[in-house]
Amino acid sequence: MSRRTIIKADGGRQLQFEDNRLLVALFGEHDKHLVQIEKRLGVALFSRGNRLSVTGADGAVEIACKALEQLYKRLQIGEQVDSAEVDAAVRMANQPVKGCSSDGPFITTRRRRISARTPLQALYIEAMKDKELVFGLGPAGTGKTYLAVCYAVESLLKGDVDRIVLSRPAVEAGEHLGFLPGDMREKVDPYLRPIYDALHDTMPSDQIVKRIESGEIEIAPLAFMRGRTLSSAFVILDEAQNTSPVQMKMFLTRLGRNSRMVVTGDLSQVDLPSNALSGLSDALATLKGLDQAAFIEFTEGDVVRHPLVASIVRAYAARDLKNNGKIKDG
Question: Which helix (DSSP H) or strand (DSSP E) does residue 252 occupy?
Fold first, then answer.
């Protein structure tokens, strides 16, 4: 039986919630979550007891109600609601994904359950479930690397794969590591830090160390992939825009039996020499027709970091369009 009831009301709708204890978290401190929804959708929200009136344009009211219902469900199963989750609920209610539940697909790890925060994130998670090769493309902050690492961890914990292999080009496409101080791990670690950060969000630190030592999780620069066949593995290549076509072909052909591969990158942040072709760009042009592969292209509308990040991405994109050229993120 549902824990909330929708009652038709003149000029809008009324939501009635069963558990008053959850409403403080649902509405937010000083009703900040309600204010956030009001500003985003142009609706008016008024609470009285365990009832919440929603008025405004019909479409906006429908979206607000769906978002609030989904946030309430999160609280019922013990998950937290913050401004980011409110934003995600509104996005998902505004553009529901065909074939997905109202909260979209999710990933379960030791530390938390990760839900899709945009429709394209939902498609990305579904693609990783269905396809052996997935390309996640788009600007920083869209979750393309984070979600890939989380899904890889879920696959390992469920026993779908025996190991995770995480890689990215170190320094530049040429991977000139020799001038850096320290041993190989000390040389490489700074360039793999974003991957470590995602791992720490999915399982306890001691488990990460244990699995790295046992070989269940391998984090290595792209150059270490040559000559290998990666079977029963979940393989991720991050920052793929900084590979050469030869490196990209080498990496893609490492895929072995019972393995899945995710390639992520942003073609607006290529750090190669101006006259060099990106391996990611070359792969997209070559493989676009492959039925076994999926290509998910995120936009600035999918940025799920601080709201200012999306504005920054849009501003740079507009500047680049105006100048009919590209810049690199420093």
Answer: helix 245-252
